[in-house]
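> @MW can you paste both from yesterday?
MW: sure, first one:
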Amino acid sequence: MSVDYKFVVKVRDAAKQKRIPKEVSAQLKGVAGAKAIARMKKESVDCPVINQEVGFLVCFLCPSFLRRVTGEVHCAGGQGPPKEWLL
């Protein structure tokens, strides 16, 4: 069995809710429900690609995001999120 991901990153509750850019919020409409988005706004991950803590929603829409499994994110590790998403 081959592994298609490079990093496994833990999803954790953020001490302080991260700001999510409007571009990210607009792309999420229709993808997830309002309650799920509200819960995901309170989570964060330590991105191994850019070596910075980012909100989970930014990670979710990143091109390197593969899947989220039981509190972990599988990341391909190629390119990170666009720079305008990082606040």
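MW: second:
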Amino acid sequence: MVLDLSIPEQTYIEDCEVCCRPIELCYRSEDGLLGFFQSNRTDE
């Protein structure tokens, strides 16, 4: 997975590359550096 660190904050759902189940990804960045990352499996 590739994160666009030029976006300061983003939350979105992406399918897992291994099992194809959806996961919610949340991250924050500042000055091009990753400051926070969280992923949660969704039950959709």
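> thanks! The chain has one domain: 9-41.
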